[in-house]
Every structure is written in structure tokens, then in C-alpha cells.
Amino acid sequence: MEIQPLPLGRIGQRFSIRLRDPEGGYRDVVGHLKTATSLINRKGQEISFDPEQIFVWREIVDRPTLAGKGAPLTLRVLELDLICNSTWPATQNYENSGWLMRAANGVTNRANSVLPLAANLEGGPLTDFAEKLEVAREFYRKANLPTIFQVALPTWQVLSEKLRSIGATESLRGNTMVADLTSDKQIVPAGIEIVESDQFSKEWLEVHPTPGIENILSGCRATYLTVVKDGQTIAACRIALANGWSSITRVYVQQDFRGLGIGKTIMAAALEASFAQGATKAVLQVEASNAIAIGVYESLGFNFHHEYSYLELK
To answer: Does the domain at residues 179-305 carry the CATH identifier 3.40.50.80?
Structure first.
């Protein structure tokens, strides 16, 4: 019987693989496929195998998993990094040996930093470090930008420590938070209107003016929400969907209207719109020091998933 090769396009999914032992008998390995020769079991251990010994395999189709549950932490972190990257796209991208260099004229850290990818983890986070660092420095020199790394912890702890050892300093520490979406509908307070659009407007941009951000916003489909009171736009946020996730960004309330529950109102509207568009989970990133925002997000069902840092090399 001819055995079909493992579908490498399904890396990250769960598989049950029966291996034929050269000395006789069989053994089974189960876990999330990491490479053509390894998977991660439920204990987070990497199990290697010889593809030539595969007798039979099958993909385990799971029921929809809850946000922040299911796969090992490392795989979940890598997935969320990619979700957040694809829904906040840089205008320039260049990948080199598992490092994704992103640039967008310096507008936001996320779109102007090096994002380590799964390929770098598989090859060893410090493999060819000096050579890759020089390529990254040259990329950002040409873009007239500092060399900044976005490192999720603890997944990239070794890389983080290496960068710090050569002088990198932390410019921001944040929390990645996740939530499961439901069909719950909110009651919009009297005198408040929630406006949704598939295009950003002049009013949406003016809530939190950031020169040049239009180039990033135009990089993928998204929904733009605003809160309008007495004809004035007082809050805004943005949602963009990818692989069943809603990535929520640019949550902002005008200074004079803070402390009135407006932030919770627009966030609830964002979650409702995300569910209506087919998302089952939501992710957002927030500065770790922003206790007020974190409290609002937690009240809406968000939980801490992992932390991340932006490390800048001078």
C-alpha cells in the first residue's frame, strides 16, 4: 500500500501517525505537526520521527477550540503573531531565514519591526544570528528606521536575551489578550450611535490622528467603528478578520469622554460585529501598563494569553 506523504500545508494541525518499527511492531505518535519529521505532543514535547517509517496517518479534526486553548502555547503564540501581522500589514516585507522584516515609514511598532517566524524556531532561534542581524540592520538602514524586534515571551526568550546582551533596550511591553465570541447583543446607551463602515473616514482618522497610517489601513479588508454623540465622533476602533479570528486595533476614546463607559461600548460593538462577520475568537494587543484598558477588556471576556516586547537596537 502506497502511503501518501504528510500534508505539510497542514502544519500546526493535529495528526495521529502510526510508525512501523524496523525491529518489528508499531508505535503511535499523536500531536500537532511541526515539520515533516516532528510534532508537538500534548505535554509540549517535540517528538521526532522518520517519514520512511510511516505506516498510516490521519488528521484529527477537532471541534472548534476556545481562544487560547488547544494547541501547545508555542504554536498558539506563532498563530496569533501571524494573525496580528496579517491584519496590520506593513507596506514593505522581507523574510530572511525565519525573520520577517517589516517597514511602513515608521508608523507603529508592529509594522516596523522584525517578527521571528516558526522557521526560525525550527532551525534554532540563534542559528546564523550575526548574519541575519546584519541583513536586518541593512534593511532598516535603507528604510531610515531603527532596528526593532517584536518578541513574544516566553516563545522567543532566548532571542530576547541575546538581543539584550548586545545592547537592545525595551521600548514597550505589551499583553496579547484573547476572547471567545458569542451572539450576545449590547444595549447602546441613549444618545449614542454606533457607526460601522468598510472604509475609514476623515472622522475616524481624526479620533486618533496618526500621519501615514492610511497606507497600513488600506493593506487589508477591515471594519471601522465609531461612536457618535450629538454629531461628534468621540471614539473609534477597527476590526479585521483572519482564520476565524477578529483582530481588534486602534481602540481610542477622546480625552473628554473617558471614564463614561464609551470604551466598553465600542469594544462591545466590535465584538458583536466580529461575531456577525463569522469570527469565533478575538485577539488584541495592549500595553502592559494600561491597567484601565486591560480592566475593560477583561470585563468583556478577554484573558491574558502571553506578553511581548519591542526591543530596539541603537
So the answer is: no
